[in-house]
Specification:
five-stranded mixed beta sheet, globular, alpha+beta, 870 residues
């Protein structure tokens, strides 16, 4: 539809013309229950609910025309300033045309809006376990218009009042405090907020309450009602006490550092089914994917990750909700800050004091990949329209932005940084900002030139590489000169200023320890570290020790040789994590052969004490095998990984999280008959490993490789679903069924995702994950041509979320060796012949093409280095 993809120019024109005074939204959700249980409608159309919106707004140029946003199957009535308009004449399916506006206006829209199965707008979920129905909303960047008529752009903020009629016995939540009176839930008016962070949740949710209070230095006391909810089926697993603990620790931390009390009244947190995101910062009603409620045993890294997300969303209450970017160009003003603050608060306020290690090892890996794609962009991006905005919730905006803020804190100092944030909140509360608004307060508080810093770090793309160059004295015992060389990709040649720590390490007994460090400013292509001249000769030089800056770290020959022999002897967990990250980047860049990386994991993975780093190593080793290893070596590599996984599973302390991590890794790499037989035995109980509890989630993890390798059939999967006939079990079942190595199975899965829209977003995701098995390259080969024939149609006909899932998930990323170049050529041919396709669609294909080309370069480098073998 022509109006669905709002452009930046249209938004700016409308913001200059209109200002919004308030919304009254009335929803009738009683249609969520009733006939066609589990279905979404009838042949006549989708299942709908009534939405009546009253918008009060002003117009700077009386007599001018504008439009309101609404995506709905039907509009019953439209009234502008007391005059009834013909819905058929003014509504085109996405916009309501408004002519001859007055200085002060009142718009009333009565519409039939559709429940969603894609996680966009008002999502409706039927729990297969008990038949209960749950609703929740998700809008970012622009899906509030699927629920009520509005002006859908972040800089047209307004207070919201809402009322909801719901089925009897349900509870309804929104941003403000609600109460039930005469069958209607009525909610307190909000502060001025953007449309994309308004929210509703409704249904028979399991709801737990608590409270937070804080007395400030001036004697005032703030009391915040706390709530946490999930589906009734997940209630036995819901550790709300831990959620509330982190919530209270976060509120204390941000009150200490922001000097601005939480401004939105209550604080509910809803863990909801079939959620497309990790979480969303709706003020007063934060929503999370329900997978953060753990049905089985998980490692400490999972709890740390959940705490990080809770704190990330909480930081948004200030960065994003209180002060909001004017347009999506400055998305970083909320996401980069929230990503940084999530880890900053995790370390400063919770039990997860090593969270910066996770950030350095896991979060930055996302940024480094995104920053080397052809779609890389400056942190302050050029967002032309809503499709651009949807795709910019990426590793640049989140993880690179957070990394750059970590560098900024080192550059200006933590006190100046936080004082700048405090002034920013107070000056811009309930308003909208651009880049310059933040930079100006940071200049005030730090005395630094923020314009040059911004040009280097926020307004250019690409990642720099820092490599040490070491010259020893003639005796070889001391450092004559240590230089840090900086380079950048030819496509993004910017060399940036970096504040780094350079660490010197040597073996002392069986330990590799740091004995010298220097904190220096690296600027330009060559920086001499004068502070380390004369130091004892190192066995390892680690640039960016302590992880102050954002860069790819390289090694000189001596350092790399030391790591090959002694990586596990590094005593400092942060230094070890940084070395692993650097080695992985070298593998992706074809500077370290994938089999050599796997050998390092085989040697030293079992000595990794940080469970989050260990699990990241498992993921990287698997990726090294399926993406970057030459085809002739993959079978050998799979045997190596399965061998070490089983060895370290059996050697791990019984019941430990290391044991659990190795068990999951073993399942992910098992392929030989004896390995699959062991998984079968662990499932049926004929074999046990001391301390390993094979709970329901681990059972599904064991079953998927069995189905993917043809060692378990549909009957086995059906029996497992009977054990776990839940929403979670259904997702696992769908994934396992699509993973079976059968041409008929693949054809069915393809048809369910590409040719039909019957599946919900969660089941689309599960089907794609099962379909795209790297071990089934030959079986998937026929779908390359089908993929390129279908993607433009899918992008046009389906919602953007489903479009993204299909285009990314079904790209032929793992072609058979004989088809690899042909697949790359087919991708290039599609890009050449579809230059007029939607830019967001082309971006997704370009990114997938780049990943495939990178994998083929690494495979070719291995062949060149070793000589191809049959």
């Amino acid at each position: 539809m022509p109006g669905e993809n709002l452009t930046r120019d249209e938004a700016r024109e409308r913001a200059a013309l209109l200002s919004v005074d308030g919304y009254d939204v009335s929803l009738d959700l009683r249609s969520a229950v009733g006939d066609s249980a589990g279905g979404e409608g009838t042949a006549a159309g989708p299942r709908t609910f009534r939405s009546v919106t009253t918008v009060r707004f002003r117009c700077a140029e009386p007599g001018a025309a504008s439009f309101a946003d609404l995506i709905a199957p039907a509009v019953t009535a439209v009234s502008l300033n007391g005059k009834d308009l013909d819905p058929g004449a003014v509504f085109d399916g996405t916009r309501i045309q408004l002519e001859d506006l007055a200085a002060e206006n009142e718009l009333i829209v009565d519409a039939q809006c559709a429940y969603s199965r894609t996680g966009e707008g008002m999502h409706r979920f039927v729990d297969p376990e008990d038949g209960e129905i749950y609703l929740y909303t998700q809008y970012e960047p622009a899906d509030a218009r699927r629920v009520f008529a509005n002006f859908e752009q972040p800089d047209l903020k307004a207070p919201f009042r809402a009322e909801v009629r719901a089925p009897e016995g349900w509870t309804v939540w929104s941003n403000g405090v609600g109460e039930l009176a005469d069958g209607v839930w009525k909610f307190a008016e909000t502060k001025p907020i953007s449309t994309y962070i308004t929210a509703f949740a409704a249904g028979p949710y399991h709801y737990v309450t608590d409270s937070y209070s804080r007395t400030f230095d001036d004697g005032t006391t703030l009391r915040i009602p706390l709530g946490a909810m999930c589906r009734k089926g997940l209630a036995p697993y819901f550790d709300a006490d831990d959620v509330f603990l982190v919530t209270k620790q976060g509120l204390d931390f941000f009150h200490d550092h922001f000097d601005y009390p939480y401004p939105f009244g209550k604080y509910d947190q809803a863990f909801v089914p079939e959620y497309n995101l990790g979480a969303m910062e709706n003020p007063g009603l934060v929503t999370f994917r329900e997978e953060y409620i753990f049905r089985g045993k998980v490692t400490r890294a999972s709890y740390e990750g959940r705490a990080n997300v809770i704190l990330h969303e909480m930081a948004h209450m200030w960065f994003g909700d209180l002060v909001t970017m004017e347009w999506w160009d400055d998305l970083w003003l909320k996401e980069s800050f929230a990503d940084f603050m999530g880890t900053f608060a995790n370390v400063g306020a919770t039990r997860f004091t090593d969270a910066w290690i996770t950030f350095a090892n896991r979060r930055k890996a996302w940024a480094y990949r995104a920053d080397q794609l052809p779609s890389t962009h400056p942190i302050t991006a050029d967002i032309r329209d809503l499709q651009d905005a949807k795709l910019n919730f990426d590793g640049i905006t989140y993880a690179k932005g957070a990394s750059v803020l970590k560098q900024l804190v080192a550059y200006v100092g933590q006190d100046a940084f936080l004082e700048g944030a405090r002034r920013y909140f107070k000056r811009n509360a309930y308003g909208n900002t651009r880049l310059g608004d933040l930079l100006s307060v940071l200049e005030e508080t730090s005395g630094r030139d923020m314009a040059s810093w911004s040009r280097s770090w926020l307004q250019t793309a690409g990642v720099n590489s820092l490599t040490p160059q070491l010259v020893l004295d003639v005796e070889g015992g001391r450092v004559a000169e240590l230089t840090v060389l900086q380079d950048a990709a030819e496509s993004h040649p910017e060399l940036r200023p970096h504040r780094v720590v350079v660490g010197l390490y040597r073996m002392e007994g069986k330990r590799l320890v740091r004995y010298e460090r220097a904190e220096v400013d690296v600027d330009g292509p060559r920086t001499v570290v004068v502070e380390l001249a004369g130091a004892d000769a190192p066995e390892l030089v680690l640039v960016n020790d302590d992880d102050l800056t954002y860069c790819k770290t390289r090694f000189d020959a001596t350092s790399l040789a030391t790591l090959r022999e002694h990586l596990g002897a590094l005593t400092d967990p942060m230094a070890r994590a940084l070395c692993w990250s650097a080695l992985w980047n070298m593998t992706r860049d074809a500077l370290l052969l994938a089999p050599d990386f796997i050998d390092l994991v085989a040697q030293f993975g079992r000595r990794e004490s940080d469970i989050g780093v260990l699990q990241m190593l498992h993921a990287w080793a698997n990726s090294a095998l399926v993406n970057y290893s030459p085809p002739w070596w993959r079978e050998t590599g799979a045997k190596i990984l399965a061998h070490i996984a089983l060895r370290d599973l059996r050697d791990a302390e019984p019941g430990s999280e290391q044991q659990l991590a190795w068990a999951r890794f073993f399942a992910s790499v098992a392929s030989a008959p004896e390995e699959l037989a062991l998984l079968h035995a662990l499932l049926d109980g004929t074999e046990k490993i001391e301390g390993l509890a094979v709970d329901q989630e681990l059972r599904w993890a064991f079953l998927e490789p069995l189905t993917a390798h043809g060692a378990a059939d549909e009957a086995v999967v059906a029996a497992e679903l009977a054990r776990d006939d839940t929403a979670s079990g259904k997702r696992h079942q769908v994934r396992c069924l699509a993973a079976r190595p059968s041409a008929a199975v693949k054809a069915q899965a393809w048809a369910q995702v590409v040719e039909s829209d019957a599946l919900s977003n969660a089941l689309v995701e599960a089907t794609i994950a099962g379909f795209a098995q790297p071990s089934q390259r030959e079986l998937l080969a026929p779908y390359t041509e089908k993929y390129f024939a279908a993607i433009e149609r899918v992008w046009t006909e389906r919602s953007i979320q489903i479009g993204v899932d299909v285009v990314r998930g079904l790209f032929p990323a793992h072609p058979a060796a004989a088809d690899a170049q042909a697949t790359l050529d087919a991708t290039d041919a599609w890009l050449t012949s579809h230059e007029g396709a939607a830019p967001a669609l082309r971006r997704l294909v370009l990114e997938s093409r780049d990943d495939l080309a990178r994998a083929l370069r690494a495979q070719a480098a291995d062949n060149e280095g070793r000589g191809a073998q049959g």
